[in-house]
Write a structure and sequence with these properties.
CATH class: Alpha Beta
Order of helices and strands: HEHEHHHEEHEHEHEHEHHHH
Low-confidence stretches: none
Mean pLDDT: 86
Radius of gyration: 18 Å
Bound molecules: adenosine-5'-triphosphate, magnesium ion
CATH superfamily: P-loop containing nucleotide triphosphate hydrolases
CATH topology: Rossmann fold
Shape: globular
Number of helices: 13
Length: about 300
Amino acid sequence: MFDQASSLREIMRDVSLHQMVQQNINTNVSQKIPSVIAISGGKGGIGKTLTTANLGLCMARMGMRTLLIDGDFGLANLDVVLNMRPDFTLDDVLSGERHIKQIIMDGPEGLRVIPSSSGVMKVPELDHIQKLALLDQIDELDEEFDLIIIDTPAGVSKNVQYWTTSSTEIIMIVTPEPTSLADCYASIKILAQTTNETNFKLIINMAQNEIEAKRIYEKISLLSDEYIGARIEYLGFIPFDDSVKKSVRERSSYVQKYPFSPASQGMREIARQIMLNGNLGKFKGTTQFFWKKMIKSGNEIRS
Ligand SMILES: Nc1ncnc2c1ncn2[C@@H]1O[C@H](COP(=O)(O)OP(=O)(O)OP(=O)(O)O)[C@@H](O)[C@H]1O
Ligand SMILES: [Mg+2]
């Protein structure tokens, strides 16, 4: 039931959270830099793209100037979920025909979106010149955004490693299916080895309830701690919810179309958690972070 007083309270809560984060950003001298979050998870079809879109909207509503990047070269569909029709994509940037600023699109509610292309026979694996050139162009957007969220493809390809290495935070998505759990753990292991990242955040999608979500979190957290030495932080859960599927069919986001659905409530809580506990505005993403992690891991930039 729509309750005006409680929705007003929610808005006020979000406004004060935004003021708090903004204060944090303003007091940090080296600021005016966006935090960069990569959304990953290993398995396909677990909700990475929907999380990117809906989390992006929640963050934008909390006053964060938010940019979404579709990092799924070849099978991009962030634009489909947000009902956008791009004329240009990251393909045009990688080929040198456009600057990234020329392909940014206006999404709903002030969200900005960098689309990728879909239906490409062979997913391009970026060479190191492309990798650095792309990060350089993203760096040029520093002044315009507080937050960049990158939707990464399924698996742990070089492209996924590239995006996660460039990010200040990695959010892993997992569902209660044993195959998703196994893939999530395997991805954490590979990403920890290849990018030297030891901190991951976890969202449990399509869970029945919080008890199930926490059980899954405990499992992954224990295994990661014991065998990988990685620390996993619980961000929250999104219940299995038919309104998510309906919103996809309607080419809209569930937080817009079904704001009071269980999935939307779960996503709002996750966004608040990120505002409260995240490292927003504390670290520099993209190029600097990429180099720092590469040097730390002793890895070479491979093409
Ligand atoms: N909380 C949820 N409740 C019900 N269905 C969901 C939920 N989250 C995702 N789905 C379903 O899962 C489908 C896949 O979601 P999405 O495209 O975000 O996954 P993905 O991980 O990005 O997939 P890919 O690996 O192919 O990029 C959605 O179209 C939707 O039908
Ligand atoms: Mg996807």
